[in-house]
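hiii so my PI (J.) wants the whole complex modelled not just the main chain, which honestly fair. so below is everything: four entries, each one labled with what it is. i double checked the lines twice but i was tired so who knows lol
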Amino acid sequence: MTTVGSPEIELLLNAILLLLMVVAAIGVIRLRNLFAVVLLSGVYSFLMATLMVALDAVDVGMTEAAVGAGMSVVLLLSVLGLTRTREAPTRRRPIVPLIISVVVGIALVHGTMDLPPFGDPNAPAQRHVAPEYLARAQVETGAPNVVTAVLASYRGYDTLGEVAVIFTGGIGVLVLLAGLGRYTGLRTRPPGAPDPGPEPKPVPLMEETVVLRVAVKLLLPLILVFAMYVQFHGDFGPGGGFQAGVAAATAIILYGLIFGIPAARRVAPMRVVLFMIPLGVLIFAGTGVASLLLGGNYLDYSVLSSVPRSGQHLGILVVEFGVFVTVSSTMLGIFYAFASRPPRDGPEPS
Amino acid sequence: MFAVALFAVLVALGLAIARALSGPTVFDRVLAVNSTGTLAVVLLALTGFVVGRPEFLDIAILYVLLNIVGTIAVLRFVRAGHLGDPIEGGPEGAP
Amino acid sequence: MDGVLEVASWITLILGGAFCVVGGIGMWRLPDVFARLHAASLIDSLGIGFLALGMALQAGLSLVTLKLVFIVLLVGLTSPVATHALAQAAMHAGVKPRAIESPGAEEDA
Amino acid sequence: MTDLLPHFNHWVTVILMVVGLYAVVARGNMVKKLVGLAIFQTSVYLLYISPGKILGGTAPILSEAYTVYSNPLPHVLILTAIVVGIATLALGLALVVRINEAYGSIEEDEVHEADGP
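here's the output for the full assembly
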């Protein structure tokens, strides 16, 4: 057995990261300034990403980094901008929830005593399907990254379901906030309404900061190219449609933050976003139908090509592209929906 | 050897998190979080070396590229109080 | 030759780690945002620079080194931009540097 | 050292879960509740990922140099869960925005008061 690294250092790193996470989590709960809460949740999420890499889950670490670094901060901040940034002092007694939480915690800790120790190679979880996947994935699909192979091929049904959930969540946000057509730019005014005159000119907010504008213009193509690398290198290294989709959407969001949301909408119009959200799910499901029509099972890519192995590889690429399309457009659509909401007027209610 | 650097980075990270927790101004927190992000990049790279797979630097690169988005969003929020564009009158049909 | 590289990467890694710690201490100990910016930039420049150099010496001429160079360049691009925007926003919001409390500038406050 | 704290990861997972649960139950602010829910969710990620780690193993990206790999299956499940998590968080936040527009508040107590007895 070849082992890598030194287990002691890994364990120590793991323990320190976990403790820092607890500190950050308690800080998140204790602070009343919601703005500081958002900042700290960013720190928390990055600690999580590093911990995932330390626990060998590189794909998960990459996803967490992509989501936590930009998207979740932007999302929470847009909501704070629409509501308020200060939490009111609570009027309830915290003692009952505290007791409930502590009792639940003690019960769960008691439950962990029966679990196999950390890092045990003979734990039941390690002996079930994982060895099969590790032994067969590269032979059958040609993708050295077993996570991608399992994600797109062996558990393709599962992933299709997850993509459908993301699709549903995105549609839900758009319906709740944008009314699918009222603010989305699909129809700028109801038929028969008087012409509202020229578009109101948005106040350029960050435009006067020349350094930011130039730096962001340099950075944007890099992010997009790197997102493409993450997308198409996903079967050889960490990466795939989920990570690349979030990264690409974050690039457009960055553009919108600096040059204004209307500028971002000219780059990626809402019409296109609304078209892409279902398109990705359709690409994914359509691949399944194609394999069905070619005589295989649903989402069994082996029949897509004369050689089963290259058929699998092709199927994984197509399916990951579908994931990318839905994830990126959903993230972007969510951002547009929050950003086009009228901000609260006047000073913040206290 | 990587362990020494790793723990040095972890110490710096702890100090930065302490600054993010204690404030006192918003900008102290933003600065601390931004530094945390930069330390995150080295930490990710060093972790890759410690666990013996240094080729996973892609995650660190992704983090460098996206870290600035969070910072810019925060600064824009500090400036304007929200992330949307301040359009007079608001979008049509606003309730 | 291998020994020389090994020692060199040792030294650079420890130097980088030391700069990170110093930056962290500065971030904790210095009096206000503008002073703390200096500590943060220490981490961003010398800390990351030396650590990446140490890792590159360890990895040799490979894709890993290329990615490390890429990381250093990107941090060199993004981090000054972020801290610049931060300082500007702090000035804009009316945070006064502590230096203004020195005698002679008292009337300003 | 391995034998010293065999369940340390699980305990921290439980602590994070309890912290999230406390925020959801005890805090009236809806954004805070959702952040607490997100912390709860990350503890679930941890619950899946840490048993998948094999000490001395490496990330499940196959290469000739290694023979022991950590379990790839939890990674697959959690990778998708993170992105789904952000989509559902967005949905919750959209509801918060609508509640704020209807009631002028995101504090649960004030919303209940506005609804009357």
